[in-house]
Write a structure and sequence with these properties.
seven-stranded mixed beta sheet, Aminopeptidase, about 30% helix, 5 helices, binds coenzyme A, alpha+beta, single chain
């Protein structure tokens, strides 16, 4: 059975485990590296995990299959644009891809966003990550690179948060 839960205070080890698994499995998808993540202190993991466990600006969601964590996604409010959030750290374990798990995870993120006054969600996809691009477009995101201040070839996608999620 698939269950999706917001990370809670004190679950830094779970967060660390999921980040390390995703960085090791899909280094092409993220700007940070497995090696740099390995060097982070326990306090650094705890501070980041706990900052998303409460409040209305950040949330990390973990997907469990029969109590084993198999996916992660986080939403962070953008400081200078109060109603815009960035979905980051999105990863589903390879054996659970193509099964609707990523869609369910994104639904959880959008539902939380809708309840917490986000109007738009953006995502940045690294160049060549065609599978993620296909997934986000299928989910209703559209390309909006003009709002990016990044000069790389990353693709910025946006989707409005609709009331259907509230
Ligand atoms: C991105 C991710 C969460 C999407 O979840 P998913 O379960 O793979 O998504 P889906 O299978 O529903 O959608 C992906 C689409 O790409 C297609 N696809 C599969 N392999 C592909 C490939 N090598 N190249 C291009 N498209 C591919 C799938 O068939 C599917 O399209 P379809 O529904 O029309 O058949 C997951 O692939 C993942 O964790 N990837 C590694 C981490 C990552 O890239 N994260 C995104 C960071 S922005």
């Amino acid at each position: 059975m698939i269950v999706i839960k917001r990370i809670q205070i004190g679950e830094a080890d779970l967060f660390k485990r999921m980040r390390l698994e995703s960085l090791r499995d899909a280094p092409y998808a993220f700007s940070s590296t497995y090696e740099s993540a390995l060097r982070r202190s326990a306090e650094s993991w705890q501070e980041q995990a706990d900052s998303t466990a409460q409040g209305t600006d950040r949330a990390t969601y973990i997907v469990f299959s029969d109590n084993s964590p198999i996916g992660i996604a986080a939403l962070y409010r953008i400081a200078r644009q109060a109603d815009v959030g960035e979905v980051i750290q999105v990863w589903v374990a390879p054996e659970y891809r193509g099964k609707g798990v990523a869609r369910d995870l994104m639904d959880a993120v959008f539902k939380w966003a809708s309840k917490n006054r986000f109007h738009t969600i953006q995502a940045t996809i690294t160049e060549g990550n065609t599978r993620a691009l296909k997934f986000y477009r299928k989910y209703g995101f559209t390309i909006a690179n003009e709002i990016s201040v990044d000069s790389s070839d990353d693709i910025v996608l946006v989707r409005e948060v609709e009331s259907e999620f509230s």
